[in-house]
Structure formats: C-alpha cells, structure tokens
Amino acid sequence: MNEFTHLDQEGRVRMVDVTDKPATDRRAVAEGLVHMTAETRNKIYDQTVKKGNVLETARIAGVMAAKSTASLIPMCHPLSITYASVDFYPEGMSSIRIRSEVRVKGETGVEMEAMTAVSVSALTIYDMCKSHDRTMTLTDIRLVEKSGGKSGHFKRDSVCGD
Predict the structure, then answer these.
(1) Residue 157 is a catalytic residue
(2) N or C: which end of the chain has fewer CB within 10 A?
(3) pTM of the shown model
C-alpha cells in the first residue's frame, strides 16, 4: 500500500468509503507486553491485588474496547464485531503477554480493534496495579496476523519480546 487512503485529492482527512466493497470474513490478532516486577506479576496470578481480579477485569476492558474502537479512533468504521477475545500469558519472570483476536464479517478489517483491545487491557493492568508498582511498562503492541479482504493474509514472523 503506497497511498494514504484517509486523504482526499486536496489532502483533507476523510473516512474511507467502503460502500462498494464486498463483506468478507476478517480476522486480526494483536499482542503486547506489560513489564513489571516479579512481585507484581505474582500478586496478579495469585489474585492478591487489592483492587480485585486483574486479568479478568483487563479481559472485560479489552473486549469492551474492541467494540468501542470507532468511538476512540476518528477514521475507524463502526463494526458489528462477531468475536473478540483477550488472553494473558506469563512471559519470563516479570512480564505478561496480552493477545487479542477479533473477527467480523464486513467490508473493512479489524486490526485496529484487536490492537485497541490489547492497549486497553494493558492500561487496565497498569491501573489496577499502579499503587504497588509504578515501574510497569507497556510495550510491543502490534499486529501479529490478519486475514480477509483485498490485501490478503499477513502474519508476523515473531512474537512479542523478540
């Protein structure tokens, strides 16, 4: 893709017109990392964080964020998402990998929805644990895979933290 599709001939911002595009099955997977102290990660997995179950709260926040992406990112189309998931994986001794998958049958992809889900999940983890660990860092939020639509299939060769 060499041109910016959100600009008209005069350089004005616009929402891309997808009216004539066929609806296809589309899927996107995104990931990100939250780095923290080992003690904080242990508290999260032991469910001893005073604010409650961190990962389940972050999971709910991520799914809600995926469904709200068009309200957050100005040129994103509102989509009828048919599936959204957020999962968490221990990474080393002091990080958590967040992985989101989003699906839709529509005229445009769900990459932004998947990355928004990861971002808001990471922010929720930070919010719930910041009183214990202000050194937490959110990194490597990125698209891992997408399928469907005219541009076809994309898959990143590596996972977070490489």
Answers:
(1) no
(2) N
(3) 0.91
